[in-house]
Amino acid sequence: MLLLILTLGGYALGHYIGKACVNNNIGINSNLNKVLSTNATLNDGKDNNKSNSNKDTVTRVTKVKGKKEDSDSKKSIDYSKEINGLVVVSNYDNSFVIDLRYATENNFTGKPVYKTNVCALQKNTLSKLIAANDEFKALGYKIKIWDGYRPADVQKYFWSIVKDRRYIASPYVNGSRHNRGTAVDITLVDSKGNELEMPTGFDQFNTSAHRDNANISEAAKNNLILLTEVMKKHGFTTIETEWWHYDDEDSNKYPILNIPLEAFLKEEN
Ligand SMILES: [Zn+2]
């Protein structure tokens, strides 16, 4: 309860008190390919044979001017900071909707876990995500980010609560791609900021969040196909147990990090 003093406001409490997205096991979804083969192409017809187009986008990440982070914390975020390759997402693209659930009470632990709501990613992962977001924006949607870089100590905390490797990557084996700053938990929102219908809300620790859950609406199925197809096109892979989780296909190039999110706050004299 002491963490409540962090006043990490600005986020409407949602309606899901679910479970952690902490799985790290990469498992490309074979079922999705089956689904895709039976559905019309949902993107704009660009070449999507393979997710290598991102390689050309890495260097085009440019900083946003005059952006504002979604922070009500007492200390402001130092957008210019780059720590071990980690950068602040909204410094480069302020069109993402950022709802960092572990910085709020609205997560499976029921309390804020992050001490500030800085959404950080590896720079190259971010460039891929921006490319995907650009494509969604052309369709009238945007990416909402529920989680990005997650310090290794937080992974240990989650593992202490839920020791189920279907949903929690053990910090004592390989950790989570989130700990490398190369994984994101995301969904899509429309032009009014409303989340598109998906199989479940965030952090559901059960089979309803699995990619092979057939018991979902046609809208949820098609929205997830769109999300998945564009993310794969831009260099991300999926896991079977959490539809909202995407890993940078180059994740293993980056180390597990334990940089606290507060490291991105401005130093105050
Ligand atoms: Zn995740």
Low-confidence stretches: 1-59, 67-73
Kindly state the percentage of residues in helix.
10-25%
Structural class: alpha+beta
> What is the third-level CATH name, the topology?
Muramoyl-pentapeptide Carboxypeptidase, domain 2
Bound molecules: zinc ion
Number of separate structural domains: 1
- Form type: globular
- The ordered string of helix (H) and strand (E) elements is HEEEEHEHHEHEE
Instruction: Determine the mean pLDDT.
Output: 79
- Reported CATH architecture: 2-Layer Sandwich
Across the major sheet, the strand order is 3-5-6-8-7
Distance separating the two termini:
29 Å
Backbone CA Rg: 17 Å
* Largest sheet descriptor: 5 strands, mixed
CATH class category: Alpha Beta
**Percent strand:** 5-15%
**Number of extended strands:** 8
Helices and strands in order:
Layout: H1 30-37, E1 82-83, E2 86-88, E3 97-98, E4 120-122, H2 123-138, E5 142-147, H3 152-161, H4 177-180, E6 183-189, H5 218-233, E7 236-238, E8 245-248
Parallel strand pairs: 3-5
Antiparallel strand pairs: 1-2, 2-4, 5-6, 6-8, 7-8
Helix pairs in contact: 2-5
The chain binds zinc ion.
Keywords for this entry:
single chain; 269 residues; alpha+beta; Muramoyl-pentapeptide Carboxypeptidase, domain 2; five-stranded mixed β-sheet; three-stranded antiparallel β-sheet; 8 strands; globular; disordered N terminus; binds zinc ion
